[in-house]
UniProtKB/TrEMBL annotation:
Organism: Nonomuraea antimicrobica
Domain of life: Bacteria
Protein name as annotated: DUF4434 domain-containing protein
Domain DUF4434: 162-416
Pfam family, one: DUF4434
InterPro entries documented for this protein: DUF4434
Gene3D superfamilies, per database record: Glycosidases
Length: 521
């Protein structure tokens, strides 16, 4: 089923369920809103594109494999001037100059969106400037337009990529969480925000969100925002600079967009000597939740496998050697020697302490720590990353277990779309071809009508058989009994575990089998 995803999308342009086109999109192919290969991962980070038809193709491809959520990173609210701003001129003068008035600080913001007229509040100062293929905005952050001193924000954009994304996602019944403006970073400590500029950041954030409230008020896709500044989900003090940033910026969100959801995606680091154990997850979640300013929040814990900070393996593999793709990160040692625990350990620890008002999501990192020879992946920005496999992604879904209210993934481009060669499939193609393969996420003992057995939970289990392979014992194949469907599908089998580690895999009624057995005892 070579390049099946793009073949599916090509066919979808010609036949299928189509909704009326937006008049502005008449030059783009008709939309197809069918979900053709629904996979367990339902959200992705994407890059807004100024080209409307490119945006439509991307949204349709994500939607075709079950995606219903799109997230973007917020551009950096920066204190450094970028070379492209030299083309921003007002009346022949650089945009950073205000004749007759003092400019105290100039911030820059490089984005892919076009703001509405409401952003231009101060006549003669706030300006929209077109120069070649780029649009610039000059915005004053002064409280009053007549103030003698101004902090300016110079914005550069290549078009309305975010607006395109919102309109297309709305047409497909999807949700978009645009990234909040990202805080300036401390000199020498880029992992911390520079709080000398937090007041200016908050003033600009309020302007941007007020513009979103006006521009996107009729678009169903706009449901919330994403906090772009990263932190580790571990125990933190009230004086932690990132926690302080979250509290300040989320208060602005609550004021401008009451009731909207904030998505945060903190990372975990299970490496011994550098990271922290799963026991810190509960307090870490509480510290993040404490910044939500009364708003609903989704904490999408990064599972750590893509960066190599946390391994994905079964509980029976603690003493096994780390996966080959993790050796460049932690060395050729055992999982226990390298890490405090696996992804499932951290997710389970997080699930034990989800704060009120918070949903626990899992961000399955859809890439490898380093690229292998002949493999596509990310070339820039550094560090280089490689393309992973559908079976590896299945393992990450397994590790999320029953605990994740939603599984999302960083990131669609380039990791799900790149190809090693023009005639080889992308990861998205492989998902489209293998989406019906069962994924088991939990096994528990359960009696049914007085019979002892096990309940197996996961995706695409219906029909077929369950195959049990005890460690050191004979394999047993048992016809499953359909148990039901809630958020996950369930199947029951009259299998009595011996207490030894046992691997269970499924073959469903369509003849598709698990890519990786689930271990239990």
């Amino acid at each position: 089923m070579h390049r099946i995803l793009w073949l599916v999308v090509a066919v979808a342009f010609v036949v299928g369920l189509v909704i009326p086109d937006d008049p502005e999109l008449s030059e783009c192919p008709s939309r197809d809103t069918r979900v053709l290969a629904p996979y367990a991962v339902t959200g992705y980070w994407v890059i807004p594109r100024a080209d409307r038809c490119v945006t439509q193709r991307m949204v349709e491809a994500v939607h075709a494999i079950g995606g219903d959520t799109l997230i973007t990173f917020g551009p950096r609210f920066d204190t450094r001037a970028e070379p492209e701003f030299a083309d921003c001129l007002v009346d022949g003068r650089p945009c950073a100059e205000l004749p007759g008035q003092r400019v105290r600080q100039v911030y820059t913001y490089v984005t892919s969106e076009e703001f509405g007229q409401g952003m231009l509040r101060c006549p003669g100062i706030d300006r929209r400037v077109v120069s070649g293929e780029r649009v610039f905005y000059r915005l004053s952050l002064a409280v009053g337009c007549a103030d003698p001193v101004h902090d300016l924000v110079l914005v550069s954009t290549d078009g309305d990529g975010l607006g395109n994304l919102m309109r297309e996602a709305s047409a497909y019944g999807m949700t978009v969480f645009p990234g909040l403006p990202a805080a300036p970073q401390r000199e020498g400590k880029p992992w911390e925000p520079d709080h000398a500029h937090t007041a200016a950041l908050n003033a600009f954030t309020a302007r941007v969100l007020a513009d979103y409230r006006e521009r996107f008020r009729t678009l169903s896709a706009f449901r919330g925002v994403y906090q772009s500044f990263e932190l580790a989900v571990r125990a933190r003090s009230d004086q932690d600079p990132i926690v302080q940033l979250y509290a300040a910026q989320h208060a602005v969100v609550a004021a401008e967009l009451p009731g909207t959801k904030i998505v945060v995606s903190p990372y975990i680091d299970g490496r011994r000597g550098r990271g922290y154990p799963p026991s810190e997850m509960e307090e870490g979640l509480a510290d993040i939740a404490g910044t939500r300013a009364g708003l609903p929040m989704a904490i999408a814990v990064q599972d750590g496998r893509g960066t190599g900070k946390v391994p994905v393996h079964g509980a029976h593999e603690a003493d096994a050697k780390v996966a080959a793709r993790l050796v460049p990160v932690v060395g050729d040692v055992s999982n226990t020697q390298a890490y405090y625990g696996s992804t499932s350990d951290y997710v389970e620890a997080a699930a034990r302490g989800v704060p009120d008002g918070v949903e626990l999501w899992v961000n399955a990192e859809g890439f490898e720590p380093t690229p292998a020879a002949g493999e596509c992946g990310r070339v820039e920005p550094l560090p280089l990353r490689g393309r992973t496999t559908k079976s590896r992604l299945d393992q990450q879904v397994m590790a999320a277990g029953r605990h994740a209210a939603k599984i999302i993934s960083y990131g669609w481009e380039p990791f799900f779309t790149c190809q090693a060669r023009y005639d080889t499939p992308s990861l998205a193609d492989d998902i489209a071809a293998g989406w019906q393969q069962p994924i088991i996420v939990a096994v528990s003992r359960k009696e049914l009508n007085g019979r002892p057995g096990v309940l197996v939970e996961g995706y695409n289990l219906h029909g077929g058989t369950l195959r049990f392979a005890p460690l050191g014992g004979a394999e047993v194949v048992v016809p499953q009994e359909w148990y039901g469907r809630d958020r996950l599908e369930s199947a029951w089998a009259p299998y009595v575990p011996s207490g030894a580690w046992t691997g269970v895999s499924a073959t469903n009624g369509t003849g598709h089998s698990s890519t990786t057995p689930y271990a239990f005892r």
